[in-house]
Amino acid sequence: MEEENFRVERDFLGEKKIPAERYWGIHTERARENFPLFVPPPSSLIRAFFATKWACTKANLDIGLIEENIAQAILKACQEGLEGRFDTEIGVSIFQGGAGTSLNMNLNEVIANRALEIMGFERGRYDVINPFDTVNLSQSTNDIFPTALRVATLWEMEKLEKAIVMLQDNLQRKETEFAQVIKVGRTELQDAVPITLGMEFGAWAEAITRDRWRIWKSKERIKEVNLGGTAVGTGLNAHPLYASKAVFYLGEITGLPIARSMNPFENTQNLDVFVEVSGLLKALAVNLRKMANDLRLLSMGPRAGIGEIILPPLQEGSSIMPGKVNPVLCEYLEGVSIDVMGKDHALAFACSSGQLELNHLLPFVAFYLLSMLEELTAAITIFAEKYVPFIKADIPRCQELFDRSFVLATHIVPYLGHEKTTTLVRECLAENKNLRDLLIERGFFTREELEIILSPSEFLKPGIPGWGKLKRNGERNSAT
User: Fold this and answer.
1) What does the alpha-carbon distance between residue 300 and residue 24 come to, in Å, rounded to a whole number?
2) I want to staple 233 with a disulfide (CB 3.0 to 4.6 A). Which of 164, 214, 264, 457 is the partner?
3) Could you confirm whether 318 is annotated as catalytic?
4) Could you tell me if residue 401 is inside a domain?
């Protein structure tokens, strides 16, 4: 068997053999050895890194810090990376120490070696294009990484917003569709008062609407980057014109409203804006989990549970029980929500762990935040597309449970008083009677009057249901 081809690269720690076909170099190779559990960096972060490197190179070229032919080769390599050509060349795990230097150097080496190749040189000719002095010119990991993370976050937030809008719209359509479906409202899982099925979907839609607004609002702070601040935000070793040019070009290539931070020193060391976004994602996850579990409860059955709604059957639910269909997308949405809540907790710890001028756990922050965004976008999209539009109301079941319950009791308290109504409910329970039939039988109300009291137009607004309309037909028996 022939020995694999290698090239030898050197750093101040010594030499290493690098597989000849790889674009990465010695610094990536050392990181691969030091962080053996490979968790791929989020694809959005990789693309944001290439976009940031492109913007920095454009700025350096404008200022005259880099030769035209070298700059064009680097720009082409960055563009290819932005299109996903070098995803397999990002060989370091996102779980890494060093504040992200390993990932930054992985990108620098890939870009340098691809640029060398474009110019007709062999990989590793760092005397021509150097990962440090050429590709990383005017930069530091400490301004490149957080800038790339902000870009990736903004991209992912845009995707999430679209998913949220679709879910919101579909829930609101169901709110309208089920507006006249009267059912039992429950508190603490016990029968409470009459509501409509549309009201429940409307409540979920309203909560999701708040989440949409919160996320949109938080983008204002994410768009401020410390690019050009280099090591600690002071701009050491960067040309005075470099920062403004680099930020301008970054906005150009990403299509985002990127802005230069007013205080790059502060922006470099404090990561609370990521905690803010993470907290809003947690709030979204809370609402999603609540909705998913409500839908599971309402669809429980189909014969031996609540069964007021019918969820779309997507796959068989059991390897042993024939005909069983599980609410798999509700469960999926709940699982993702729980994972997001956990990652929010981990992210908060990581963001609070920085010392003085830098946070060394930024790669972990990036993983938690971008994973949360990707997971939520995927789960919400499939839930909004394949589940919500196809939910059906089992109207006969809603009516059956409504008639068997005592939700009417609260509506007649203003007419009969609490004690008399309680006595009637107890009598119904003891004798297995229907409260509506008992009220008519005892002469407290006519069937027509109870229909007025239980009309959605009456109990969906403040006040005593049917009070004015019943009084026009004559006073009824009342304990009040």
Assistant:
1) 54
2) 264
3) yes
4) no
